[in-house]
């Protein structure tokens, strides 16, 4: 997610500056009076209950923080905070469905256009919802000829697919996974493990064609 730049980037030296080896720069902070205007959107908690090393969480949405970068010469207007989000899945574990939704409406954050929806699995339709009036998504299938498989060097529909988010500065987005029959019609029965997720990293068939590994 991107975050609007703060003007005053100074904070007391007594504030905790790292959590689990991850720098927590102002306007974010750990503890009272250590984040911008005590605005809860900038509050980070250092959680010790998830692993051996402490893990930083963005308190307002309870998401694990991967990295925080402040505005620089390359991007002077916005900083960037990377967070971990769950993988949306269907038919991967006891036919249990997992979903993903993010809502930061009213916050200084928005989802950047650098994120991509990636989906993997057979007869898989992945949709980005809660972004009305727009809609976006992609479909992946395993029913193509051998020549297509040989040439498949990007996630363009064979066993994995991808789609850019339709606009920048989204503050709400959800991911939905549907199972399709051979005619492209939605079906209630899953044809196997299907997954979808948002990422700012580049994915190819080599690391997405086995959805169980992603899940």
Compact summary:
With 215 residues, the protein is mainly beta. It has two helices and 18 strands.
Describe the structure.
- The protein is mainly beta.
- The chain folds into 2 domains: 2-83, no CATH class; 88-214, no CATH class.
- The chain has 2 helices and 18 strands.
- The radius of gyration is 19 Å and the shape is elongated.
- The relative contact order is 0.17.
- The mean pLDDT is 83.
Q: Any idea what the shape is?
A: elongated
Please write the string of helix (H) and strand (E) elements.
EEEEEEEEEEEEEEHEEEEH
Q: What Rg is obtained from the alpha carbons, in whole angstroms?
A: 19 Å
Biggest sheet record: 6 strands, antiparallel
**Which regions have little confidence, pLDDT < 50, spanning 5+ residues?**
none
> Strand content of the residues, in percent?
35-45%
How many helices?
A: 2
Q: What is the rounded distance between the termini?
A: 22 Å
**Number of domain units:** 2
In helices, the fraction of residues equals under 10%
What's the count of strands?
Answer: 18
Structural class: mainly beta
Strand order of the largest sheet: 4-5-6-7-1-11
- Report the average pLDDT across residues: 83
InterPro entries: WAK, WAK_GUB
GO cellular component, one term: membrane
Main location: membrane
Protein name: Wall-associated receptor kinase galacturonan-binding domain-containing protein
């Amino acid at each position: 997610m991107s975050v609007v730049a703060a003007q005053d980037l100074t904070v007391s030296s007594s504030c905790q500056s790292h959590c689990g080896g991850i720098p927590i720069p102002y306007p974010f902070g750990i503890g009272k009076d250590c984040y911008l205007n005590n605005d809860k959107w900038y509050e980070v908690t250092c959680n010790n209950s998830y692993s051996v090393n402490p893990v930083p969480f963005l308190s307002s949405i309870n998401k694990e923080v991967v990295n925080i970068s402040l505005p620089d010469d390359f991007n002077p207007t916005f900083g960037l905070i990377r967070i971990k989000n769950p993988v949306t899945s269907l038919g991967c574990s006891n036919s249990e469905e997992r979903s993903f939704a993010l809502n930061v409406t009213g916050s200084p954050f928005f989802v950047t256009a650098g994120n991509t929806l990636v989906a993997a699995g057979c007869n898989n339709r992945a949709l980005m919802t809660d972004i009305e009036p727009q809609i976006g998504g992609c479909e992946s299938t395993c029913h193509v000829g051998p020549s297509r498989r040989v040439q498949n060097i990007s996630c363009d529909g064979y066993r994995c697919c991808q789609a850019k988010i339709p606009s920048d500065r989204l503050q709400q987005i959800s991911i939905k996974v549907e199972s399709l029959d051979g005619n492209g019609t939605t079906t209630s029965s899953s044809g196997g493990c299907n997954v979808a997720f948002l990422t700012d990293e580049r994915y190819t068939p080599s690391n997405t064609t086995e959805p169980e590994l992603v899940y």
